[in-house]
Amino acid sequence: MCFTIDNDQEYILKCFDSLVFNEPQSKSVKYNGFNLTYGQLDVLVNRIANLLKVKLKTQSLDSNSKSDLIKDKLIIPIFIDKSHFTVASILAVWKLGYSFTVIDRQTPKARFNEIIKQLNTELIIDGDFISELDGLGEDFEKPIDVDSYIGIDDLALVCFTSGTTGTPNGVMINYKQICMASKNISIELIGKYLRSKCVMTLIPSFSMIAAHLITFGVMFSKGYLHIIPDEKILDLHYLIEYMKMNNINGSMFPPQLAEKFLRYADGLLEGFIVSTDKVSNIYSSKTTIINLYGQTETLGFNTHFKIDKPYKNTPIGKPANNNKIYLLDENLEEVNDGVMGEIYVAGQLALGYLNDKKLTDEKFIPNPYSSSNSDKVLYKTGDLAYYNNDGDLVFLQRKDFMINIHGYRVEPTEIENTINKISGVEECVVAGFDVSETTGIKNNVKIYAGVVTENNEEVFDVDKIKNELSELLPVYMIPSVIMKIDSIPLNLRGKIDRTHILPKNILNIYLNKEESEYGFK
């Protein structure tokens, strides 16, 4: 079953207001020592919204977007640690009728500056903004006029993803779509597979669409959200003990963490979601596990599959979330069952890319199979898959060799373009490689970079390259192996041959068995 919006109570803000009015003492969000009821969260939302109103009066209210897909829409950056303040800031921005983007606190300065440049704004909800809340009087707790709320078709959020040109791409999502996607998470996953009242942990960053689906999916379920601090995400002992003490019954994990969690705490949760492209050998007879597949451009929820046994390559399932899936060849013809094709999605899609009509037109194309106004556009995912005998989609790989690192979809060319900017580098190539068999950790993908130096210089300082990259890229995008190579592998067309980027002995190289020969660290 897929959900469609029929009345006001099915919008996120209307749902929140209803909970504040009818269940003000019910628990809403917990983060470290902060444990807020819906009533207390509403007070915080109003304080943030009223402070924003004061600051906006002193600034121009002109649109800070140059996109021709949206007009007169201020996009407010949120740059704070993942916490209850993030949830409250999002709701406050929407109550004022504006949109937002969340920039992860770990974002390197150069990437942060590029995002701010694209947004063209001076107003930021950051640590200094949050610190001002303590000195505000009761006047700042007054409710915001409902008439100012964000409109159903208005831009609601922008999620920045890895870009092929070396700059992040801002994916624009309207309010109706995020409401529908979150409601479907509430109905299709939380409602179906959690037997008792929803009490879920939030692990993903708010810079990712998954965090919003979980946050508002829990709200639609009248549930209780526990936000896990970023520094505790990989602390398995902490996670398990926290879940026991707080009676957590659901979560969302990247597959690497899910595999470890099941090893030590199988059956602790009623159910959880694994969200990535490819999942292998993850199964529990004690816990319901859902394999969720999607992209930011498709609201993060294309298909889902209830894992019923261990699979070497777990199916990603059947269409969900009001979307239609097409498996097409290079001529946009549908392929037969069992035949590999590229996944195209119609239905619930993002508006396009911020300030980039060219990329929008390349990725969001007219649907030759359209049968209604709701499926006139196809999103070209670049993912290759096939249908198995049960009619479930099975993901194979990225058509363009995009790398999936702990749930983050990384475009190799963004890393390549960044490394190319480093002094002494002539060009480079990047690819992902799986070290699961050698490390014993499932779905453990690392990044390799082959670098050609200017004038074939003998001096090759890997530490220098990694230090410079740490200022430009998130940690998960910094290659584990950086090697000097003589030339970039090319195919007969003169293009990079990405099937022959990785050295044949890459696993030995990764394990540092041949360090002296290659001069890497």
> Could you list the spans in which at least 5 consecutive residues all have pLDDT below 50?
66-71, 514-521
Q: What is the number of helices?
A: 15
Residues in helices, as a percent range: 25-40%
* Superfamily (CATH H level) name of the domain at 8-225: ANL, N-terminal domain
Structural class: alpha/beta
Describe this structure in words.
The chain is an alpha/beta fold. Among the domains are: 8-225, ANL, N-terminal domain (Rossmann fold); 411-518, 2-Layer Sandwich (GMP Synthetase, Chain A, domain 3), CATH 3.30.300. Helix content is 28%, strand content 23%. It has helices at residues 12-22, 38-57, 84-95, 109-119, 127-131, 175-193, 209-220, 236-245, 255-265, 357-363, 412-419, 436-439, 462-470, 506-510, 515-518; strands spanning 27-31, 34-37, 75-78, 99-102, 155-161, 169-174, 199-202, 224-227, 250-253, 271-275, 288-293, 303-306, 318-319, 324-328, 341-346, 352-353, 364-366, 377-387, 393-398, 403-405, 408-410, 425-434, 445-453, 481-484. The strands form 7 sheets. Strands 9-10-11-12-13 form a 5-stranded mixed β-sheet. Strands 14, 15, 17, 18 and 19 form a 5-stranded antiparallel β-sheet that branches. It has a 4-stranded mixed β-sheet with strand order 2-1-8-7. A hairpin with a 7-residue loop joins β5 (155-161) and β6 (169-174). α2 crosses α3 and α6 (175-193) crosses α7. The longest helix has 20 residues, at 38-57. The chain is globular, with a radius of gyration of 23 Å. The termini are far apart.
